[in-house]
Amino acid sequence: MESIGVVTRIRWVAEVFGDRRRRLLADLGVDVATLDLLSTLRRSGAPYRVNPGEPADACTVTRGSITQRAARSPSAWSGPPGRGWPNGPPPARGRPHAAGLGGRVTPVAAAEAGTPVAEGRTARTPYRGRVTIVPDQRTSAALEPYVATLSPYDLGRSPAGVHRGLPSTTLSITIPEEDSLEIAWLGRPGSPNRFRAVVAGLHLDAAELRQQGGTRGVWLTLNPAGAGALLGIPASELAGHVADLADVVPAMADLPERLAACRSWRQRRAVVEGALLAGLARHEERAGGHELRATLAALSATDRVQEAARLLGCSRRRLSGLVRAALGVTPKEYQRLLRFQAARGRLVAAASAKRAGLAAVAADSGFADQAHLTREWRAMAGCTPTEWLREEGLAA
Question: Would you state the pLDDT for residue 340?
């Protein structure tokens, strides 16, 4: 009986410390699996790059699991100094790498993930066809917590085409230098509208974008906190909608004309960052702060809403209310977006590496099977994964 009492107390203490650990990781935006990967990279020493097989051996998991963890790990590096890595993320040197893992980053996957791409390479934005990408420059430190991607695009002199805008966990802003955009939601009759520059909120279905050839511009994505901090409105007000940038942020109405007057990407980037920094100075208190970051981190760490609520120490009802108010979608819908986005990245990477296997992508992304992946893609993208890859010029 005495030994049972000792073991019981040890178990209680372990539960208390385990719960505190989960809360701390959720606060930092890191789940246990990602912490395992980052710890392995940290122990490897500068420049914090290893072959995929090494962390797989150290973490006693498969290489597929390491790939899945690496897809999530960049989010653990986006935060104020002192969060995540003690001195910020490991510096990027030499060839582009994804999450510190050695190996080539494909141009398409780099564009989707916002990874730097070497000069002269091409990548894809949400627009169909190849898009010229210039050398990446680090986003202003003040904008890093809010801006996921800031890239130029150049469609060249291709004829006008239809481009499929897919669901994502970020809000997007597309600013052509000259021509306007026509956008319509798939399956919504009478929805086409033309915009000089467009802001799109979180959405669970695809959009069609029509644009004349020869158009250049800037494409950027914001995480949900960035909507309040930079645009002055919560992401929930834009959920499921597109709007003209001038209507959402009147102070940015002249951005297309200012970009058209620029002669280089460096100048265009400076103009956009200047406008975003001005918005940050006006609206930073509306960012949503710690609670929103912790909530999204918890939803990213598990595929069960109830488990995310437990990590946060709140009820499921409280979690649902917070997510709806901040994002305009339910917690489960946000997790659907996370899963879809992960599958899209893996599809692009597999196709670019000339690897087949929708079943493997489905399994690694959290789908029950390939049929489940296909059904979800039909619902959210309006086509099958294979059809989308063919549209993007990635299918064999």
Answer: 95
| Contact residues for 360 (Cβ-Cβ < 8 A; gap 6+) | 64, 350
Residue 282 and residue 284: Cα distance in Å, rounded?
Answer: 6
Q: State the fold for domain 108-286.
A: Jelly Rolls (2.60.120)
CATH of 290-396, one of 1.10.10.60, 3.40.30.10, 2.60.40.10, 3.30.360.10: 1.10.10.60
The owner of tokens 């917070």 is: 322
| Cβ neighbour number for residue 199 with a 10 Å cutoff | 25
Instruction: Say which range, 17-31, 87-101, 180-194, has the weakest mean pLDDT.
Output: 87-101
Sheet holding 161-165, edge to edge: 161-165, 207-211, 181-185, 193-195
Long-range contacts of the stretch 310-318 (C-beta < 8 A, 24+): 311/22, 311/23, 311/26, 312/23, 312/26, 313/23
pTM: 0.66
How far CA 239 is from CA of 38, 126, 169, 255, in Å, comes to 33, 18, 11, 23
CA separation for the pair 343, 336 (Å, rounded): 11
Please provide the distance, in angstroms rounded to a whole number, between the alpha carbons at the two ends of the chain: 67
Name the one residue in this structure whose structure tokens are 């990279």: 41
